Amino acid sequence: MKRTQLHVVTYNIHKGFSQFNQHMMVHELREQLRALGPDIVFLQEVQGMHSRHARRIDNWPDEPQQDFLAEDVWQSTAYGSNVIYDHGHHGNAILARFPIEHAHNQDVTHLRFERRGLLHCAIKVPGLKKALHCVCVHLSLFARSRRRQLDALSRYLEDIAEPDSPLIIAGDFNDWRNEADELLAQRLGLSEAFGGACGSLGSPGRSYPAKRPVLRLDRIYVRGFSVMNAEMHCGDPWSKISDHAALSAHLRHSSGGHAR
Fold it and tell me: Which residues does 23 contact at the CB level (< 8 Å), separation at least 6?
């Protein structure tokens, strides 16, 4: 039985700035992501463009943040802008060592003052018979909006992905009530990386604030993979880079069927 292993990371990068926007940290962020060395990276609050920062900050990257972070390491990138303003935009991004065959950014905004999107990629991973579906999410701060967004996500994936297709959904769920576990487990057959869906005391991990995490906001959900290990990256140096901790998981897929 052939097995494929993947290392994935999700991180809300706070537009490349430290907590309270005190320091631009995108260069330190790039170093830390490269030190982790994941195959696929799910990023939220990625600054696709900001003309004011580009003029005022000496070492502001010339290219969009997703391309700056991916350069020479992750061969494929996808970006979906969610919030657009006069001087720029930001949104979600996926970086991958493998070819991204298709990318789609779905607008799931519920409240006009809180723009949200779901970035979906189909990725061709060596050793997998079917495309790996990856979705990077950044959900609403409000429970009613989150439920609508999770329903939209489920309907979208039910339409475009076969039930046995490998699937990873990761990002900032803003779901301190832990409602996503049961919904995603029942409807899409997903398990949460830090202990499995529905009730594990260790699942999901605490990820906010990064210096001393208390709230369980960020997640990695998987289907078709077993979780070899999962880790929360908080404290120094991570807490100097963003207000969220980064999450990583090592996954194993078995081509003989669903892994559990």
Answer: 17, 240
User: How many Cα neighbours within 13 Å face the side chain of 14?
Assistant: 23
Distance CA 108, CA 52 (A): 28
- Which pLDDT score, from 0 to 100, does residue 202 have? 57
Contact 114, 140 (CB under 8 A): yes
As a dihedral over the C-alpha atoms of residue 172, residue 177, residue 182, residue 188, rounded to 10 degrees, the angle is -20
Dihedral of CA atoms 66, 67, 68, 71 in degrees, nearest 10, equals 130
Whole-angstrom Cα distance, residue 221 to residue 168? 6
Alpha-carbon gap, residue 173 to 82, rounded angstroms = 15
| In contact, 173 and 208? CB cutoff 8 Å | no
Which of 58-62, 82-86, 166-170 bottoms out in mean pLDDT, i.e. has the lowest?
82-86
What's the whole-model pTM score? Answer: 0.93
For residues 17 and 25, the answer to whether their CB atoms sit within 8 Å is yes
- C-alpha gyration radius of the chain: 17
- Angle of helix 143-160 relative to helix 180-188, nearest 10 degrees? 20
DSSP structural state of residue 92 = E
All residues at 6 or more sequence positions from 18 whose CB lies less than 8 Å from its CB, including other chains:
25, 240, 241, 242, 243
CB 135 within 8 A of CB 153: yes
pLDDT tens profile 94-106: 999 999 999 999 9
Q: Which residue has the higher pLDDT, 182 or 52?
A: 52
3-state secondary structure of 144: helix
